[in-house]
Amino acid sequence: MNTEEIRKDFPILSETVNHRPLIYLDNGATTQMPRQVMECWTSHYCHQNANVHRGIHYLSEQSTLAHEAARQTTAEFIGCDDSRQIIFTSGATDSLNLLASGYAFPRLGPGKKVVVTEFEHHSNYVPWQQAAKRAGGTFTVIPVEGDVLDLERLKKELDEQTVILSVTAISNVTGTILPLQQIISMAHAKGIPVCVDAAQAMRHGGMNVKELDCEFLAFSGHKMLGPSGTGVLYGKKEYLKEIQPVRFGGGMVDIVDLKDTTFGEVPYCLEAGTPNYAGDIALAEAMQYMNKIGLEEIAAWEKELTDELEETLRGMEGVTVIGGKQPKNSVVSVSVDGVHPYDLASVLDKFGIAARSGNHCAQPVLRKLGYESLLRFSPAFYNTREEIHILAQAMEKSVAMLRKWC
């Protein structure tokens, strides 16, 4: 991978922060956007902009064609044969809320339950928790020990009362890659549908829904080089038809009269209102950009950077890398003796280094690990080994300085 050439596609990587070259290691929160995606977004507004599925004039038809082409690109990117299985949303959070409210809630009630894991981001935790609470059902959380999911406990909890299992593909705290195919097989053996939160995973080699055989898959555009406010919910045809619309308005209806309303077909009945069509089109461009580089190449380079980063941090005195030796990618979280993560992130920022401090929207697993806050580094394929070396030097200086103050 020619990282230096790739970096030229990302204008923001040439910025300086506090008079130092930007080193962006917060890709787990949001990735940067290549010039090609920005130009795609701008070009649509300059040459094709019009509301989709609403007009018969030229611009509306061109805009609609571009939006449906983006749906097709998205389907192909995740190994789906039918673009009608792609629902455009505002992000993984929106996708998971749609599922929790439109699929799980009508099926939950006394004696019924939804199952998640302690690894989950709040977006794949709170919507299910609240749906169970509103419906009077049970919200079951499978525990983790270190960075290992308790598969035996999961097997016991999956039963005929389980409405759905929802599980992340990669932990946004430890970087742990969960054994999805094993988990999905366990659920299917009991006839239980599975939703995969792929927000952290889509950039690291992609996700093939045909190989996974999951019933649902959710992800965000802003974590895979696309615009914010874009996302996708994939579903098997028979399951998408079972989702009750939870947002209503233009574009998703069939017949509206004084007494009742009938709804259109999937996917449109689940896409109320004017979609973020320019954003969806730009998201498809981001997928094409990654395809041109090569998903396997991206994943391999990110894994190399992750391994080098983890090894470097483990070698520092007083630095604890969270998680053991389970397979992981693009997330390394640490705790530093005597130094608060917020203070360390603030000082690293003076070196031009962008890192994330806090609970990472995953409070249950942090508390299970014994922390309230951690410092997280999340490299992407446009990062370099040199940046890892600069980070190591900045960490040594920052920690030494903060310990003197403490």
Automatic annotation (TrEMBL):
If you read the UniProt record, what top EC class would you report for this enzyme, in one word?
Answer: transferase
Boundaries of each Aminotransferase class V domain copy?
23-391
The protein's matches in Pfam families, at most eight in alphabetical order, are given as: Aminotran_5 (PF00266)
What is catalysed by this protein?
A: (sulfur carrier)-H + L-cysteine = (sulfur carrier)-SH + L-alanine
What keywords are annotated for this sequence in UniProt?
Pyridoxal phosphate, Transferase
The source's superkingdom equals Bacteria
* E.C. number(s) listed in UniProt: 2.8.1.7
Which cofactor(s) are needed, names only? pyridoxal 5'-phosphate
GO MF annotations in UniProt: cysteine desulfurase activity
InterPro entries for this protein: Aminotrans_V_dom, Cys_dSase_SufS, Cysteine_dSase, PyrdxlP-dep_Trfase, PyrdxlP-dep_Trfase_major, PyrdxlP-dep_Trfase_small
* Family from the record: Belongs to the class-V pyridoxal-phosphate-dependent aminotransferase family. Csd subfamily.
**NCBIfam families to which the protein is assigned, alphabetical:** sufS (TIGR01979)
Q: What name does the UniProt record give this protein?
A: cysteine desulfurase
What is the originating organism of this protein?
Brotonthovivens ammoniilytica
